[in-house]
């Protein structure tokens, strides 16, 4: 009797164990997808600057994950400014980085459903790998710029596609995605700087990190456990037509009358998508405002927050600003399992306060030490990362099942729009301070 009980106990445990294992695989898969989607962009942009400037030393370079790096060559002494700044704001490159992504996020959600997820991932992988090859092997500036554009397309299309993809999985995969994207900034900068520091050229470093797009490929096709409802190789219209055809066949075969009352909702119409977007404004505006303030600080003010009597040089101060900011982003984007913040406008307000504080600090130079700036930019990263993961978590939670896939993709335009506007605003601010 005892043996019978022990034998029958095993099958009862297997479904739960399989469910947990599947849940873990999906979480890890989305973590790697988030890491790879942003990681390639980070490394490629840092390397693009080194190749264009023919520099291989990190000592004179500050690495910024979303923009080309800033090069401090003893300041800008030609214009007599009291600020140690470059003649051209880093916002110039920020706009070049973000505009292709912004265009994709504005228009792709309305038509991207026609392209199955399998083909989207293959396209993103090809674009990311091509960007590495173009920038690594280029001998002309325009080819390297083309590589930047390809990386931006891959990152933008990947972000909205993978956010849409979360609608087919349990909501906890959003925590994996957010944590992975947060880790990309830190891991990308550290890996690139580490490989170049040990003597590898930027070109060879780029060829080595070509493995990253293929990790994305493996994560999607072999690590994730997709549900049967996922349109892997067929678009929405084809899948819907197949379902309707099956329902009609069942009715003709003499199914019960109540089966006739069941209706399978088709893809969202254009009018329905506009209605969904209207409901998303309460999420998109706070997210856009957070990112506007965030990148206005990063690209308009950070370079100007220089403390001459500090033990770090200008380049080193800037590098640590960016590093601490990225650590803040990593921590907060990984916090969804511990804390959830519904009041997104509060995060926006606090980030704007940060921007105003640092703007006055640049103008009146009342901060006594870089240590205070280190604390502020770490806090800035915490706010930005928290706004990102909580925005998409509550969109996923509060939208209807039929609208969720589109809503996740459409809302991703918020951060890119805020970044683009921040780049435009940073131009006159940088020019004003550098001509004082």
Write the layout of secondary structure elements.
Elements: H1 2-53, E1 61-62, E2 70-71, H2 91-111, H3 117-137, H4 141-165, H5 173-197, H6 202-208, H7 211-223, H8 236-252, H9 257-261, H10 270-301, H11 314-333, H12 344-364, H13 370-398, H14 401-411, H15 413-434
Antiparallel strand pairs: 1-2
Helix pairs in contact: 1-3, 1-4, 1-5, 1-6, 1-7, 2-4, 2-15, 3-4, 3-6, 3-7, 4-14, 5-11, 5-13, 10-12, 10-13, 10-14, 10-15, 11-13, 12-13
GO biological process, one term: lysosome organization
Membrane topology: Multi-pass membrane protein
Main location: other
Give a verbal description of the structure.
With 436 residues, the chain is an all-alpha fold. It has a single domain, classed as MFS general substrate transporter like domains (Growth Hormone, Chain: A, Up-down Bundle). Helices cover 74% and strands 1% of the residues. The protein has helices at 2-53, 91-111, 117-137, 141-165, 173-197, 202-208, 211-223, 236-252, 257-261, 270-301, 314-333, 344-364, 370-398, 401-411, 413-434, and strands at 61-62, 70-71. It has a two-stranded antiparallel ribbon with strand order 1-2. α12 (344-364) packs antiparallel against α13 (370-398). It is globular, with a radius of gyration of 24 Å. It starts with a helix and ends with a helix.
């Amino acid at each position: 009797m005892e043996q019978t009980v022990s034998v029958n106990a095993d099958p009862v445990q297997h479904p739960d164990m399989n469910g947990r294992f599947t849940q873990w695989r999906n979480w890890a898969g989305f973590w790697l997808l988030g890491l790879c989607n942003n990681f390639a962009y980070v490394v490629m942009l840092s390397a693009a600057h080194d190749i264009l400037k023919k520099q291989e030393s990190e000592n004179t370079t500050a690495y910024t994950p979303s923009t080309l790096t800033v090069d401090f060559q003893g300041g800008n002494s030609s214009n007599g400014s009291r600020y140690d700044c470059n003649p051209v704001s880093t916002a110039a490159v920020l706009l070049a980085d973000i505009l292709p992504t912004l265009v994709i996020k504005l228009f792709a959600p309305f038509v991207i459903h026609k392209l199955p997820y399998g083909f989207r991932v293959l396209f993103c992988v090809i674009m990311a790998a091509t960007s590495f090859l173009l920038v690594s092997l280029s001998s002309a500036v325009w080819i390297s710029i083309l590589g930047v554009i390809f990386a931006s397309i891959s990152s933008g299309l990947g972000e909205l596609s993978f956010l849409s993809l979360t609608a087919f999985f349990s909501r906890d995969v959003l925590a994996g995605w957010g944590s992975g994207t947060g880790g990309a900034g830190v891991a990308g900068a550290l890996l690139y700087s580490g490989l170049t520091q040990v003597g590898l050229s930027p070109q060879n470093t780029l060829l080595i990190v070509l493995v990253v797009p293929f990790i994305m490929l493996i994560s999607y096709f072999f690590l994730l456990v997709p549900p049967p409802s996922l349109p892997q190789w067929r678009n929405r219209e084809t899948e819907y037509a197949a379902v309707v055809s099956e329902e009609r066949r069942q009715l003709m075969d003499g199914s019960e009358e109540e089966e006739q009352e069941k209706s399978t909702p088709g893809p969202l119409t254009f009018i329905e998508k506009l209605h969904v977007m209207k409901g998303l404004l309460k999420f998109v505006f706070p997210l856009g405002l957070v990112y506007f303030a965030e990148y206005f600080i990063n690209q308009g003010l950070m370079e100007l927050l220089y403390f001459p009597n500090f033990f770090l040089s200008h380049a080193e101060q800037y590098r640590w600003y960016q590093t601490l900011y990225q650590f803040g982003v990593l921590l907060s984007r990984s916090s969804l399992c511990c804390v959830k913040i519904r009041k997104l406008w509060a995060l926006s307000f606090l980030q704007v306060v940060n921007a105003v504080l640092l703007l006055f600090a640049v103008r009146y130079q009342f901060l006594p030490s870089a240590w205070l700036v280190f604390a502020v930019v770490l806090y800035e990263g915490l706010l930005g990362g928290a706004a990102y993961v909580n925005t998409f978590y509550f969109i996923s939670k509060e939208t209807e099942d039929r609208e969720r896939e589109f809503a996740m993709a459409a809302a991703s335009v918020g951060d890119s729009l805020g970044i683009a506007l921040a780049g435009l605003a940073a131009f006159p601010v940088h020019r004003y301070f550098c001509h004082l």
